[in-house]
Amino acid sequence: MSLSREDQANLLIVDDDETIQRLLVIAAKDHGWRPRTAGSGMAALEALDDGIEAVVLDHGLPDIDGLQTLERLRQARPDLPVIMLTGLNDAETAVRALRAGAGDYLTKPFELKRLFDLLRQIRQDRREPVVATVAGNVPKLGPSTGGGLRSANTRVRELLRRMEKAASLDTTILLTGESGTGKTYFAREIHRLSPRAAEDFIPVSCPALPRELLESELFGHEKGSFTGATATRAGRFEQASKGTLFLDEIGDLPAELQPKLLTVLQDREFFRVGGNKILRTNARVIAATNVDLHAKVADGSFREDLYYRLNIIELPIPPLRERKDDLPGLTAAILGRIAGRRGSAGWTLSPNASEALAAYDWPGNIRQLENVLERATAFTERSELSEKDLVTLLEARRDGPSAAAKVRTLHELERETFLEAYRRTGGNKARTARELGVSERTVYNLLERHGLK
Ligand SMILES: Nc1ncnc2c1ncn2[C@@H]1O[C@H](COP(=O)(O)OP(=O)(O)OP(=O)(O)O)[C@@H](O)[C@H]1O
């Protein structure tokens, strides 16, 4: 006889301590769950079936330990939310649990209320997929993570939960994702959610400067250590000592600087360029890359040991085309931002305009969405954007992939031209402005637009 859906267990509790098992079962039932228990990792794997919506997993198990069990559970069901129970002050296990894909962790002893709040949130996220809205409706957004970020997409919500946890752990984080997916935006959010929020967040773009200048930017220099070093200057690692240092496009870190970064991440020690005094830093490093660092390790252009140092916790940000349910929320947020800046009353989208956005595949991700909305709102007198307002900006899609590539290339062309001038002038903004025939303000805008600030 097969079990009806109502009888089938939907929560798996994995703990070898029978008292805790019993306690959790009673509490789970009180909270409307249908629990099933397992006393070991192997038993958990056997007990897993499609009806299970979430797992509470103890770290210390008798056969395969909690982390291995977690990995195998996630292999079997990659989307399965797992809450890991770890020992008090066991930050290392917590980090490893997050690395292995745990949705969250709680340190023992924990409050039952906290556990069931987390489970309730997981259930809400899964059961109430956010409805994509059209035409002027205020989009219904997913639950807040406590920060400014929300998402209607299940995968992103899980990512946000991991991000929030990782923020508090003070470890190095690697953000991966295509250009324009929001890596810089996420890095700022992690900083804001971290215990370092009141300190500085200092971004450094690795490809923005030639090697010598980048070295001095990161580590500082002593007076006279190279031509133009007229005064001793502290580097970003010193300045961010209490805060967060964001290393953007880390894949472009020149080979000569990789050992120096590795040393500072391992030992927290470094020298200024031309200096002989050992300096210490306590900066938290968040790195981002839009290239496959694994491939760079394989072809020898990125050090493997550095890769593992940076990749303590990896947060992969999906491209916009894989989180289209977030389009209404992102569109509303971006339009709100534009309206605020221009002092306008704001805009809504017609149903056809929303559909046009949803049908597009967004090779340039959120940055491209932002550009499209900037331009569409600049060229209309009306408060409702129509499909026509957007169509020429999205024409690329109708013309197929080559045109989509063209849109992206334009953006990249601007970036390359700008970077070339910026590098040539050694990062001097006034000279860059003169060379490019634009105002200094535009140089700042370009730095911002290309995530180089
Ligand atoms: N969740 C979000 N809500 C609103 N705007 C966002 C969000 N995420 C990103 N953006 C906006 O999209 C643009 C691109 O984001 P960001 O610069 O963080 O991308 P990136 O992945 O760092 O890009 P790159 O790899 O090219 O440096 C930014 O202007 C940012 O403000």
TrEMBL record:
Pfam families: AAA_lid_14, HTH_8, Response_reg, Sigma54_activat. Residues 10-123 form the Response regulatory domain. Keywords: ATP-binding, DNA-binding, Nucleotide-binding, Phosphoprotein, Transcription, Transcription regulation. InterPro entries: AAA+_ATPase, AAA_lid_NorR, CheY-like_superfamily, Homeodomain-like_sf, HTH_Fis, P-loop_NTPase, Sig_transdc_resp-reg_receiver, Sigma_54_int. Residues 149-378 form the Sigma-54 factor interaction domain. It comes from the Bacteria. The keyword Lyase does not apply. The modification 4-aspartylphosphate is found at residue 58. This is Sigma-54 dependent transcriptional regulator.
